[in-house]
Design brief:
The chain has helices at residues 14-17, 39-45, 79-91, 110-118, 162-179, 194-207, 237-248, 252-266, 284-287, 294-303, 342-345, 347-360, 364-367, 493-503, 524-538, 543-551, 555-563, and strands spanning 9-12, 50-53, 57-59, 66-72, 95-100, 104-106, 147-148, 151-156, 183-186, 212-215, 233-234, 273-274, 307-311, 369-375, 379-386, 389-396, 402-407, 413-416, 422-424, 429-434, 438-444, 470-471. The chain is α/β, with parallel strands linked by helices. The strands form 5 sheets. It has an 8-stranded parallel beta sheet.
Length: 566
């Protein structure tokens, strides 16, 4: 099996973690990357066996405005530092993938600088999209060009140009030969040209066995990007959103629907990159209305189909709120010395470490078929079955304990991997109690590893205070309905309004799509309505689906999304 199918990733934004200056002076190298070395044993200790780190290469600011693809950012150190970092990770059994920012470059990139100097006579004038020497830009260069995301600082590469493709393919070969990396996460993959991605996949197949290409895709049909010809995997933003909002709304129907919807797109064999936060979105601990939901959210992250990832610092339960003009709070500097005892003392870190060990020792969580067992708004159970062995996951997002009677495998006994509780199988079923705001992974006794150390986050053996226990019926629930039912909101008016704003976006006035236009000619509003019309052909459009469309206001991303429908 490829290594990435059993991976648990640790995601590092290195300029943030190391406290690098916000702007690059291009001065003498500062060896900040070396300060990450002490984190490597911690990453291994919490059960991660792969690192996604980036952006790393020379840039002027946040890292995504590349100046030199073959030189480590001066604020982080030298190429030798990166070579040594990857070697140490490999020594400790950890794979490494880097950020590949191949959609655009910064203005200090050599090809753009040549255009500034030589204008129409530049041999690189066709390296970028829509360079027009009769126009101008916000930097007053005397010519215009297509940018990325509305920022002239990010100059969009012409991916149809064979010279550009050859150069980027050579960059990948260089990264492997120089640093011995194991894969690349492609930035803004949802707007990359498909022939361009096929060329990158060809190089990936050439440079190293099981070299992994994973793409950042926010909206659309994931199978359009992740398949045998382009990328191995993409980011599962749909599951990301469902995991936190399904808990905030006490609505497991949303999560279950998302799992089925995504599975219908990509099938059961493709492993998407799963996460609950990253360098572009708020920390999970900030997003959760009830902080106790940190537990069931992460149990699901590690047990649902996909390749799980932890964003640096989130294993400690730190906060991070997205601000209007800055992502700095999402990308903080952390001192390892402040957290070196976290696995022993921090409940959040204890949980992540336990889940990491469980996943690494339970193949069913990597390869098992998914089956829904019980589904209610506040409690949920599903199974992962591999090679005839069934692992059962139980979740509860409510404030009362619940009792579940569940179909089980053929083992005579199941063990709660997080608590150590044992339950016997009677008549092919198990009866378990799931504490409030909790999740458990029930593993057949014969598959339990000695490395599973129950974290005892709740006292299972001790009788709790009288609570309302909801008895689950013996039979399995029916299929998930398309539209999840509303549930009671928190009593505090401020929370109620906040959740309403998040889950029930206002519906704008009806936009009529002019289908005679090309997608590029359509406005953002027309593209949104075109996507919704295509969705309606496939079935009911839920509030969640409507919200994801309305939240996306980037023209290029919407064009890629509407084209992803078959």
């Amino acid at each position: 099996m490829p290594w990435y199918e059993e991976a648990v990733f640790y995601h590092i934004y290195p300029l943030g973690l190391t406290g690098a200056p916000k702007q690059n002076s291009y001065g003498e190298p500062a060896h900040r990357l070396n300060t990450i070395f002490p984190w490597i044993p911690h990453i291994k200790e919490i059960g991660c066996n792969a690192i996604y780190i980036g952006p790393l290469f020379e840039s002027v600011g946040h890292g995504y405005e590349t100046t030199d693809y073959k030189k480590l950012d001066s604020r982080l150190g030298t190429n030798e530092d990166l070579t040594n970092f990857v070697a140490e990770c490999h020594k400790q059994g950890i794979r490494v993938i880097l950020d590949g920012v191949f959609n655009h470059t910064g203005r200090d990139f050599f090809a753009f600088q040549d255009i500034k100097q030589n204008r129409e006579n530049s041999q690189y004038k066709d390296w970028y999209c829509n360079v027009n020497f009769g126009g101008n830009n916000s930097f007053n260069d005397g010519f215009s060009y297509e940018n990325w995301g509305g920022y002239d600082l990010l100059v969009k590469l012409n991916q149809h140009n064979p010279a550009v493709r050859d150069y980027i393919c050579d960059v990948i070969r260089f990264w492997v030969s120089e640093f011995d990396i194991d894969g690349i996460r492609l930035d803004a993959a949802d707007v990359l040209d498909f022939e361009y991605m096929k060329a990158l996949r060809h190089v990936a197949n050439e440079v190293k066995p099981d070299f992994w290409l994973m793409g950042e895709v926010i909206h659309g049909n994931y199978s359009r990007w992740a398949n045998d010809g382009t990328l191995h995997s993409v980011t599962n933003y749909m599951l990301h959103k469902a995991l936190y909002s399904g808990h905030n709304d006490h609505n497991y129907f949303e999560i279950a629907h998302t799992i089925k919807y995504v599975s219908g797109m990509v099938g059961n064999n493709l492993k998407l990159y799963s996460f609950v936060d990253n360098h572009d979105v708020e920390r999970i601990y900030t997003k959760l209305t009830n902080k106790d939901h940190f537990h069931p959210v992460h149990v699901m992250l590690y047990t649902l189909p996909g390749v799980p990832s932890i964003y640096y610092g989130s294993e400690f339960g730190i906060e991070g709120r997205k601000e209007r003009f800055s992502d700095d709070s999402l990308r903080p500097a952390l001192n390892y010395e402040d957290y070196k005892e976290a696995v022993e003392n921090n409940p959040c870190t204890k949980l992540i470490a336990a889940l990491g060990k469980i996943r690494q020792n339970t193949p069913a969580l990597c390869y098992g078929d998914y089956k829904e067992l019980v589904l209610q708004t506040t409690h949920y159970a599903y199974a992962r079955t591999y090679e005839g062995k069934t692992v059962i996951i139980t979740l509860n997002n409510g404030d009362n304990d619940v009792s579940m009677n569940l179909e089980a495998g053929y083992s005579p006994e199941y063990v709660g991997a997080l608590t150590g509780e044992r339950v016997s199988v009677n008549g092919g079923r198990i009866q378990v109690r799931v504490p409030a705001n909790f999740g458990e992974i029930w593993i057949p006794e014969e598959l339990c590893s000695e490395s599973f150390a129950p974290i005892k986050t709740v006292e299972i053996e001790k009788a709790p205070e009288p609570v309302k226990v909801i008895e689950e019926p013996e039979q399995e629930v029916s299929e998930v309905v398309e539209t999840a039912k509303s549930v009671e909101q928190p009593k505090e008016e401020s929370k109620k309004e906040e959740m309403k704003a998040e889950t029930k976006p206002e519906t704008p006035e009806k936009v009529v799509v002019d289908w005679n236009k090309t997608y590029e000619e359509m406005s953002v509003e027309e593209l949104q309505e075109a996507i919704l019309e295509k969705m309606r052909h496939n079935g009911p459009v839920t509030e969640y689906m409507l919200g994801t469309v309305r939240e996306n206001t980037h023209h290029g991303s919407l064009v890629s999304w509407v084209r992803s429908f078959q």
